[in-house]
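Morning F.,

Quick status update on the modeling queue. The single chain you submitted on Monday has been processed. Sequence for confirmation:
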Amino acid sequence: MTSLRIPEEISVMREGGGKLWNILQLLLEKASVGVSLNELEKLAQQYIEKAGGTPSFMTVNGYKWATCLCINDEVVHGIPSPRMLEDGDVLTIDVGMIYKGFHTDTAWTKIIQQKTENNKQKTDKEKEKFLRVGEETLQKAIGVAKPGNRVGHISQIIEKTITDAGYSVVRSLTGHGVGKTLHEEPMIPEYLDKSVEKTPLLVSGMTLAIEVIYAMGKGAIVYSRDDGWTLASKDRSLTAVFEKTIALSEEETFVLTGS
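Structure tokens below.
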């Protein structure tokens, strides 16, 4: 059953979500050539503690980290490791925080670029376009997330925007409700597998983690390590995730992590 938040609870989630978004920006800024995934994880734990929160992901049975850190073909649930970031890597940072009893969840993907002597960065047009499409898709998805619409409207626009660009959504992963627990109803698929009218209705008070999860290749995923967590594209194509937590009210849709 979908849990609905009252305005006072959404206010708490806005506060926590704002803090989490700032933490994500700090982590993205720190992520550079020569920095290890373990260093980013350590920083995330420090930032979350300083913000007065606790790591959401540690509430998942068996998961011991504050972040999921995925490189290149890895799409979700990447465990922090000694692996150092290299020039040209595509890194996804996914992080969640419990603040005053409520979870928020957010993720972003960036290209790791080595600065040249004149402080200019090399560009990879293909990777830049790939990530730009994901950002634009998330904005479009948030735009249709409003009372009176349905989950299917979100799924439909994610699938259409990604596939129109020549990429593939990861069909086996979803966005989700979020609040008192990290993963709540409704699930928000990356594609539409039934008529929009048969998908859950969006109503005021819902708090949702909308995720755009996609690949440059086919979108099928497999476990890529022996850790039981890290999932990657089966064809080893590049992947990315863009995620924000939002709240629905009759007047407007609030983006709780970012703007």
